[in-house]
Design goal:
Elements lengths: L20 E2 L21 E2 L12 E4 L5 E2 L12 E4 L4 E2 L12 E3 L6 E2 L12 E3 L6 E2 L12 E3 L6 E2 L12 E3 L6 E2 L14
């Protein structure tokens, strides 16, 4: 249930086989909790479910999970690799502050990247946004200071405010013709940007 293991700092593992829902705050603050693969039966990850689980180094999110709720992995500062197999949407701040996140694999089913999703992921250097994504929300890649290259698929029609603000390492970005909404400060302080 909700907040079931909240701040159980010494918890390292828990058999979640057969679990279909991980509710809001379920493992929030469990600093040593570190499952690398979530069970295939899982279809929902709640608000702040794994927030602050600094023991997580990698995570594979199974294809049945259609949505990652707000802040699900926020502040997992040692998280380095994420594979998402089937989500349609990634809610606000899901990976915010995952400062060691280097590798992200996004599914072809994804349609939206929400507010602040990868904000302050300072180790992220490259990301491929799959075809089918139509909108990239405000602050989605804010302060991703190591991000160098990104290709926006032709399906994207809008990019929110401050989307790539303070991405100081960004050198190249491809913006498709179909983008009709480019909000304020999208590339603010991207002083190494050479090629659009």
């Amino acid at each position: 249930g909700s907040s079931a293991f909240y701040n159980c700092e010494k918890l390292t593992d828990f058999d979640i086989s057969g679990v279909t829902n991980i509710q809001d705050n379920a493992f929030c603050g469990c600093m040593n909790f570190a499952p690398s693969v979530l069970c295939e039966s899982l279809n929902y990850i709640g608000v702040n479910a794994f927030r602050g689980c600094t023991g997580l180094a990698e995570i594979k999110i199974p294809g049945n999970v259609e949505s990652l709720d707000t802040g699900a992995f926020e502040g997992c500062t040692n998280l380095r690799s994420v594979v998402i197999e089937g989500a349609k949407s990634i809610s606000a701040y899901v990976f915010e502050g995952c400062e060691n996140l280097e590798s992200v694999s996004l599914p072809s089913t994804l349609t939206e990247i929400d507010l602040g999703t990868f904000s302050s992921c300072t180790a992220l250097t490259n990301i491929v946004i799959p075809d089918g994504v139509t909108s990239i929300g405000d602050f989605a890649f804010f302060k991703c200071s190591s991000l160098k290259n990104i290709t926006i698929p032709s399906s994207v029609t809008s990019m929110g405010k401050h989307t790539f603000k303070h991405c100081e390492s960004l050198e190249r970005i491809v913006i498709p013709d179909g983008v009709s909404i480019l909000e304020d400060y999208v590339f603010f302080n991207c002083y190494n940007l050479k090629d659009i």
